[in-house]
Amino acid sequence: MSHLSQLPSKIKTKSRKAATKAINLIQNRFALSGGKMSQHDRVVFDLKGYIVKPAVLSTQEVKVLKELVLRQKNNPESLPAHERHLPGGAFAPLIDHPAVMNVLLDVIDPDLNKIRLENVFLSYREQGDGEWKPHAGGRTTNPNYAYNFHDGRIYAGMTRVVWELEEVLEDKGGTCFIPGSHKANYNIRTNPIASIDARDSGLWSSYSCPPGSLIIFSEAVRHSADFWQNPHNPRVAIFCAYNHINVRHHKPSIPPEVVAQLAPKHQRFFREVYHPLFD
Ligand SMILES: O=C(O)CCC(=O)C(=O)O
Q: Looking at ligand 1, which residue's alpha carbon is closest to its atom 4?
């Protein structure tokens, strides 16, 4: 009898779970509408710790985004409150841009529900601005900086997605990397070596790219900001930190009014840190 009385609630729970599963499958499919990460990109990301995707955005998309971030920087009051900070306003559709999602679903987690976006900021640099500050690199058990390869796939922790909105010239101020250092056996994170970290050690690589390009890198790779030396334009780059749903690196700082105005499919990236199993 008691079994029978529990039946309706069991059916309800089961159908809710089935519906959630179906929705997740559809959302994952949608996020991969641009196709899966190519084997080329997967191997390069694993080998170097970063990939560069040139000219992902159109000239018009870059123009709109540049207008937004420069207004946020110079004249925020001219914007409605929910557009005064990233990831609000015209940036929002980029949160799950297919060129980003196809990489994150491959390197962080194949389930969209398990990917968070914990931090987004503008990096604006004029000629001479910047710093040289190498950090990260080496193997670690810290889940935020982890980079693992297991059972035929990458398990990355915090993954940076950088939208370059202006041209970047090689070795003139783009982010610098020691390729492969996310897998270094010697702990260059906690025991840095000055001759390796020196900008002219010959171990650092940068990139050139047109406006609208994407740089995606594992936070585990040793990297550094650099001094902007491009006389033609400033650096206008949007830095995003994606992470696995189970961990967080940054102190939450995205204003609630920004998240509140995002579409539900984008709001999900700003959920609390917990396993979606408990939803
Ligand atoms: O400003 C840059 O180019 C690099 C920023 C950085 O070091 C980081 O994202 O951890």
A: 225
